[in-house]
């Protein structure tokens, strides 16, 4: 049975996957006319600035669009482990992925502050600023985690989980808005990148939701296997009884 926060994540994931590409496509179509009139400005984008914009986008994609969601998936896989080497391995992988994600996001933020004119007059820049703050708050919370079984463990876990999911969802949204900003700045098509990123987000969301069902599927397999084994044992026992009755007769 799904708990409320899992239902909320499923609804958010589906809405994110199916709505954002359409928003990107419709926005791109609406801006075709304006692109034609602003081609002169687009051509003024220097090759160096274009490289910096592309590198900034790549860093943020690796950070928020790949490593952060993978870190969530890895730590989610550890929930069936109470202790032992597997749990430590999952935790270390989660910590490494998240630290790399924070470092790359920080590098992208420094690039943005240093090389771009940040007037914060659009959704992409504003959301990016909020994301940078939440990312570091999440990292700090990770270092301050209480030990298992302590009184503060549950509120910490809920807050840490909420921040992680928030960063992942906002990060994906901001990547889409960043692609739109890139298209508006350079007049280049982003259709291929939107499609590829949507496939990636769909796969990660599917795997996230599948994790809830894997244990149930495995239990069903064990139950069915036990039932089949029990049926075979009953048939064998019945056959032995019949042979015994024939011999005694």
Separation of termini?
A: 55 Å
What name is given to the CATH topology? Four Helix Bundle (Hemerythrin (Met), subunit A)
Report the structural category. Answer: mainly alpha
Write down the CATH class: Mainly Alpha
Low-confidence stretches: 1-43
Shape: globular
Number of helices: 8
Largest sheet: none
Give a count of the beta strands, DSSP E runs of length 2 or more. 0
Tell me what the CATH architecture is. Up-down Bundle
Rg computed from alpha carbons, rounded to a whole number of angstroms: 26 Å
- Whole-number total of structural domains: 1
Strand residues, percent: under 5%
* Mean pLDDT across all amino acids: 74
Helix content: over 70%
Order of helices and strands: HHHHHHHH
Could you characterize the architecture of this molecule?
The chain has 249 residues and is an all-alpha fold. The chain has one domain (4-212): Four Helix Bundle (Hemerythrin (Met), subunit A) (Up-down Bundle). The chain has eight helices and no strands. Helix 4 (47-77) runs antiparallel to helix 7, helix 4 (47-77) runs parallel beside helix 8 (191-248) and helix 6 packs antiparallel against helix 7. The longest helix has 58 residues, at 191-248. It is globular, with a radius of gyration of 26 Å. The N and C termini lie far apart (55 Å). Residues 1-43 have low confidence and may be disordered.
């Amino acid at each position: 049975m799904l708990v409320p926060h899992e239902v909320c994540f499923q609804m958010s994931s589906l809405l994110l996957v199916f709505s954002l590409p359409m928003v990107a496509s419709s926005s791109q179509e609406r801006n075709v006319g304006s692109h034609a009139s602003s081609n002169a400005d687009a051509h003024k984008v220097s090759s160096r600035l274009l490289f910096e914009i592309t590198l900034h986008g790549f860093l943020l994609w690796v950070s928020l669009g790949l490593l952060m969601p993978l870190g969530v998936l890895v730590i989610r896989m550890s929930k069936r482990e109470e202790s032992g080497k597997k749990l430590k391995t999952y935790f270390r992988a989660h910590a490494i992925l998240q630290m790399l994600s924070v470092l790359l996001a920080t590098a992208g933020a420094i690039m943005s502050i240093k090389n771009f004119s940040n007037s914060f007059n659009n959704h992409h820049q504003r959301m990016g600023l909020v994301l940078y703050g939440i990312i570091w708050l999440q990292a700090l919370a990770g270092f301050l985690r209480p030990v298992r079984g302590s009184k503060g463990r549950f509120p910490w876990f809920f807050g840490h989980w909420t921040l992680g999911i928030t960063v992942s969802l906002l990060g994906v949204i901001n990547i889409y808005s960043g692609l739109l900003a890139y298209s508006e700045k350079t007049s280049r098509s982003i259709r291929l990148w939107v499609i590829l990123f949507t496939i990636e987000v769909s796969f990660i969301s599917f795997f996230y939701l599948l994790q809830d069902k894997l244990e149930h599927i495995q239990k069903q397999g064990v139950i069915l296997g036990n039932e089949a084994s029990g049926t075979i044992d009953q048939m064998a026992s019945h056959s032995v009884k019949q042979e015994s009755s024939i011999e005694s007769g």
